[in-house]
Amino acid sequence: MEIRRIREPELPAAMDLCWRVFQEFEAPDYPPKGVEAFYTYISNTEQVKYLTVFGAWERHQLLGVLAAEGDHIALFFVEPSFHRQGIGRKLFQAYLSADGWDRVTVHSSPYAVEVYRHLGFSPTAEEQLSPDGIRYTPMIWEQ
């Protein structure tokens, strides 16, 4: 498996993976405006190209994506058939190693709270609902 930064021409495939996994695991628990807000975010190519995006590749297949804005994880998705195989941990470690972060934040979706706990994150508040309908739990990882 290869973990590396995603190049700009690969961003559409990365955002497609995020959208497909979001639809399966997150969208059913979100209000319609939250689903729309998520789609709008990942569809904004000008905004997305400024994210630091890592991908997990097996041969030529993209299996997982972690995208961050500085020390804040914005997107973190793994193909469902590859869950629980350590891909998320490898993506997270690549992200930490690349910039030497000693503190990372995330607004975890309800589905991913336990995933983040396994990576060493702790909640900093209860679940919240943003004005645009995104459900999340603020979490932090510190070295």
Could you characterize what this model shows?
The protein is an alpha+beta fold and 143 residues long. The protein has one domain (2-142): Aminopeptidase (3-Layer(aba) Sandwich), CATH 3.40.630. It has helices spanning 11-25, 32-43, 45-48, 87-99, 113-118, and strands at residues 2-5, 52-58, 61-69, 72-78, 103-108, 122-123, 128-129, 135-142. Strands 1, 2, 3, 4, 5, 6, 7 and 8 form an 8-stranded mixed beta sheet that branches. A hairpin with a 5-residue loop joins strand 7 and strand 8. Helix 1 packs antiparallel against helix 2. The longest helix is centred in the N-terminal third of the chain and has 15 residues, at 11-25. The radius of gyration is 14 Å and the shape is globular. The two termini are 26 Å apart. The mean pLDDT is 94. It holds the Pfam family Acetyltransf_10.
